[in-house]
Amino acid sequence: MENDKSRTDELQRPWDTFREVPVIEDAQTPWKWIKFLRIISLFLVAIIVFGVATCSKTSFLLLITLAHERAKTLPAKEKPLVLLCIGCCFVAPSVLLCLKSVWKAFYKSSKLPQKKTIAFVLFLEFIVSAAIAILTIVAMPHLDIVTNVTILNGVALFSAVFQAGAHCSTKKLNSFVLPSIFAFIFTLLGYALFFALYIMKDPNDVKTIIWVGLAVGASILVSLNWWENYLRLISENSSSKFLKELFQDMTTCQNTLCIFSTLVRIAVTACVVGAYVHLAQMDWSTVTSIPGREARIIVIIIGVQLVSSVLCQWFSLAACKMHAVRRCFLVPLYLAFLAVMAVFIIPVIIYYWDFKAIEAENNNFRSYCNFLDGRSSNSSVFSLLVWDVSQTLCFLDLSKILDIGILTGSAVSWWVGLVLATVHIWKLRLYRIQKTRDLFVRRLYEGAFIEQSLLLNIRFHIPKRKRKHEISNLGPAMIYLCATMWHETNSEMMNIIISIFRLDKYRPKPKEGQTSNKSDFTFEAHIYFDDAFEAVKGSNEHQLNEYATSLVKIITNVHGTFMNINEKFFKMQQQVPDQRVIRTPYGGRLVVTMPQGNNIVVHFKNKDLIRHKKRWSQVMYLYYLLGWKLNTKYYQLWKKGGNEEQIRLNLQKEKQNTYLLALDGDTDFQPAAVMLLVDRLKMYPQVGAACGRIHPTGSGPAVWFQKFEYAASHWLQKTAEHVFGSVLCSPGCFSLFRAEALMDDNVMRTYATKSTEAIHYIQYDQGEDRWLCTLMLKQGWRVEYNAASDAYTNAPEDFKELYNQRRRWGPSTMANIVDVLGSASLISKKNSSMSKPFMLYQLFAIISGILGPATICLMIAGSLSFIFNIHSAISLVLAVVPPTIYLGLCFKLKPDTQISIAAVLSIIYAIMMMVVSMSIIGSMVKEQTILTPSSIFITIMSGIYIITGILHPQELHLLFYGVLYIICIPSAYLLLTIYSMVNMNVVSWGTRETKPAVGAAPTTKQTRTQKGKSKLQELWSKMKCCKKVHSESQDEESDAGRNMIPEHQPQNTIVDEGPEDKQREAEMPVDPPTQGWIEQLQKMSSDMRLKDEHLDEEEENFWKELLKRYLYPLPNNKESQKKMHDELRSLRNKITFCFFFLNALWLVSTFVFQVFEVFKISVKIVDLSLEETGGVIEIDPVGLMFILGFALSVLLQFVGMFYHRINTLIHYIAFLGTEGENKTPKEKEDHTSEDSLHIPEESDSASEFSFATSHYTLSDSDGSSVETLV
Q: Which region ranges are annotated with the description Disordered (predicted)?
């Protein structure tokens, strides 16, 4: 009561409500810029789709026009080449699809379909391909340009019929069937008007009747091309066994059927072209003797047609995936028809008007046609093409209103018929990430009529009156946020707690009996706190250490801030509701219900009761969340007599729809980042894990180096892995895992294996996240990377901590990649993402990594030779001496001394790299050339990184850190490699081992002034907070009155245990309190009452069995420790010998080539004018091969990055366009008050999920201001 009264008194002080709102730019998101980017992107896509569709159709119809019998641009004897190009327009997509299908069939899956399936599919493909060839090669060159533009819209006839049949098969006829019926009627009307127009001219003209009949019959048969789009839906509602087996076989054998069908199309087209040329008595020999001008005209037209068709198909797909179907897909393709008509008709009209202005008499259209017959062929290309287009209209008498009316009527009828046949696309239902195969039924697009093929190829569905934006038969997903903590600082813990509460506000938990429009997922947060307890001298009770108690204070403060986020400025603030605290077999548990109903559970681990360190915390939550909470639930239903088959289906469904978000104790993320990862796993069932873009935070040169290193790694390496194969490592600081993948055979159970061999300590414990991904890859799961999912984590800020971190990562990375390559054949068969070429790429990467030290020595040797103008062999010897000496010292000196020496050498190498860089630039300026091998390599690499940075505009500033990265290359890839390889037997964690307690200064001996200042601060804290503060020994005091407790190294093994445990026992408080940890928390948390509860019996038994089987603390056996220590040293010696022996061989081979000049390549230097300067550069052939291989690898990464970047943009724009629809009415009216939270004034569709750009100020328990970012 006293505490409540004191709290109420404080809240009623109106003069003390002012807050400090810091600006933290690293975590702010420029939503206005993002909204502008989205608008610009959609506008550009719409313009591009419209433009390339117009270019594709225009260029194709120009080829048709050139093949017309009255065209004069090409003589009649040169028509075979035009007909061949028309056939190429039709064949080119088939060739591309055939190559793609062969690739997939060879490297992924390929099954042979049934004979009846092959016969049925190939029969229809034969009819369609023959119809297309006859229509475009035989019939259309004899028709007028207006008919040619419009008759392709008539290929929707059978589509309309099949649509009506699909509606009838559902036995639920409604108004949506009317567009299909009217589409059929309008298309038939167009054919009737077209037939009447041509036949009325001369009913006795047999040739015209034949051309018209072929055009009508062929175009009708072409409309069978999209039969599977509608028969698929009919088969689902039909009892026909044949149709069901047919589509099931087509789905499983798609690659093989695509190969067969494309080969049939190519063969049929070739036969039609050859037969028609022979029957028309044309000569193929003229193909090779066409004059240059005509040949260039044809090449340009066919080139534009092929390229624009490919671009139109790709950008149309991008428009649909961006959820801009109407704006960027339908409307541009509809308008493309009108644009093509205008492109052809307007120039004809203008030229005709010019003729009428010249000719006062006989200036009708027939006279104009007679004039065109005598025109000169020496005019401009544009004039010749316009005249040829005009010639096609001379058959009709356009001076008669009736002819114009019939021609216009047929054109309008066909276009309206196409619009009505595709009107269902206006109500197209899409996932946020839409698979291409679920969007387009056929993989093949038709280059001859690109817009019609794209519109009719969209998967047909029967619209419903009530429509949901998201379609999912799995229901809402369940996400478990799992963070591991150990010795995080106050600010680090603040980051992750705010991120969790931010997600709680973004996705409130629906109340019982209510449904939420934000029902795509629910979540529960779990924090696993390692070594959270400390012993109390003279008592059997344990208390939470200062790190754990600081976490509780942070949760309390953040909870209070988020609870009062919408209150008025002077209104009484709400008190944090009562929460639960539970004793458990592994230590204790704090359960906090966040303001929006989701839970955050803190598991305090006692290292005397449960195995500690990060991997075992992960095993703990895997078995608890997936084994106990998920699997055991269905076991209980089965025990009660539930239907076994139904239980199995429900369990499988929940495993697919349950995800674990692995986090570090300092990760800062946004709700949008989680959603973007969830999208990928929900859409692609074969994806077992997905990671986001990790941004290191901090300050200082070490962090600047890591910022560019992380950026380059994510920009190029991770994207290349994602595009060409699978990501090999999903970092544990921010990755989403699928429960089904983790619960698969040889994954979760193998991950819980205790290290028993020396290699286990390196592969299992030093890089646990990479090992977990290796296990998933071996089971056939794919790991992906999403560049738009940003997360921030603290990076080592000093040289020593960075070296110790990389000492862990280097050997474990190598061990896991070697493990993957050793199982390459098995993984390639089981994992469709891991092809043999991708394994070859990884083999080259690991070889490059192994030979990295030697390569750096060669680079240094070249630098010395360049600067001092000495022989390359001498410079190589000089370059090898320092790292060799450092290698020898590393075997003798302590790790700290090794790092100190590396720091000195790093400075020397950095200075040398600066000199070399400036010398190379000066040489290029002096020689006025960049055409030397080294200059070309540097220029290309710089260009790749600059272009890559431009494609990541929000990270463009990181390129400036690239200068520091370049000069630190010898330190990172030579000295650090030596240090990590020699010290691979040290299996301690290496980081967070020298930091002071949370918010405290290092424990150094204080001066009298410092002690007096600390006392005054302590006294002021007591007076301000009205709380008793237990002062510690003066020699241990810090600014916040806390003492520093020596930290136990967080290794995952029993090897190399430090002396901290003994030191900790000797540093117990002089006057220990008598209460246990629950009483300690209850006394400490005045703003949040804690109820003491107990586990139920079943869960209690689960934890006891889990501890006994997997997580019981490892025994401290000195003999086994010594044995493992010796085995680790032995393994280190073997691997180090092989590693540096290979580097020595590489250096010796290069040395031999240079000294004895066995083989060398001499290149003459040329300036920018390509004139020889007289200088000569000698290139080492071995080094040249390695550089070329590296350049090829970087080029592949660049291509992969570009492809991945475009897909990331598509996904992000789709996210921005769809997430806004989940906004609740309350949130639409909500403008957060300024008393507890400041939110920027964006009102775009993205702002509702951006709770990231807001700031607030918390008051810590001692009254000091804690600035943080929401």
A: 1031-1073, 1223-1248
Reduced to 3 states (helix: H, G, I; strand: E, B; else coil), residue 633 is helix
Give the mean model confidence (pLDDT) for residues 729-753.
93
Return the structure tokens found at 30. 């420029």
3-state SS record for 1118-1168: HHHHHHHHHHHHHHHHHHHHHHHHHHHHHHHHHHHHHHHCCCCEEEEEECC
Give me the helix-helix angle, 31-66 and 381-392, nearest 10°: 70
Instruction: Let me know: does 389 contact 347? Beta carbons within 8 Å.
Output: yes
Mapping DSSP onto H, E and C, the string for 535-579 reads ECCCCCCEEECHHHHHHHHHHHHHHHHHHCCCCCCCCCCCCEEEE
- As a whole number of angstroms, the distance between CA 301 and CA 58 comes to 9
Task: Describe the strand order of the beta sheet including 1088-1094 as a list of residue ranges.
Answer: 668-669, 782-794, 687-697, 734-738, 658-664, 477-485, 521-529, 599-605, 587-593, 576-584, 1088-1094
Over residues 700-727, the pLDDT tens digits come to 999 999 999 999 999 999 999 999 999 9
Distance CA 830, CA 835 (A): 10
Minimal CA–CA distance to 664: which of 766, 733, 748? 733
Paired tokens of 859: 């680079």
Q: What pLDDT does residue 1173 have? A: 61
Rounded distance between C-alpha atoms, residue 319 and residue 338, angstroms: 20
- DSSP letter at 509? P
- pLDDT higher than 80, residue 8: no
Place of tokens 């709290």: 7
- Scanning 67-177, the segments in alpha helix (DSSP H) are 79-107, 115-133, 145-151, 157-169
What are 1258's strand-pairing partners?
1266
Q: How far apart are CA 920 and CA 751, in angstroms?
A: 50
E strands, 380-447, are none
Q: Which fold has domain 477-508+519-794?
A: Spore Coat Polysaccharide Biosynthesis Protein SpsA; Chain A (3.90.550)
Q: Assess whether pLDDT exceeds 80 at residue 221.
A: yes
For residue 232, the tally of other CB atoms under 10 A from its CB is: 18
What is the three-class DSSP state of 1178? strand
CA gyration radius, the chain: 37
Q: 1257 has which bridge partners?
A: 1267
For 322-342, write each residue's pLDDT tens digit.
888 998 999 999 999 899 999
**Whole-angstrom distance between the N-terminal and C-terminal Cα of the chain?**
32
Domain ranges of the chain: 32-464, 477-508+519-794
Which residues fall within 8 angstroms of residue 282, CB to CB, at 6 or more apart?
Answer: 77, 79, 80, 83
Compute CA distances 36 → 287, 461, 1213, 1242, 1244, whole Å.
52, 33, 11, 12, 10
Q: How far is 1072 from 1213, CA to CA, in rounded Å?
A: 58
Average pLDDT, the chain: 79
Residue 1221 pLDDT > 70, yes or no?
no
Dihedral sign from CA coordinates of 354, 358, 364, 366 = negative
What does the pLDDT look like over 10-50, one tens digit per residue? 444 556 555 443 333 334 455 677 778 888 889 999 999 99
- What DSSP string describes 236-283? HT---HHHHHHHHHHHHTHHHHHHHHHHHHHHHHHHHHHHHHHHTT--
Pairwise CA distance, residues 1013 & 1108, whole Å: 50
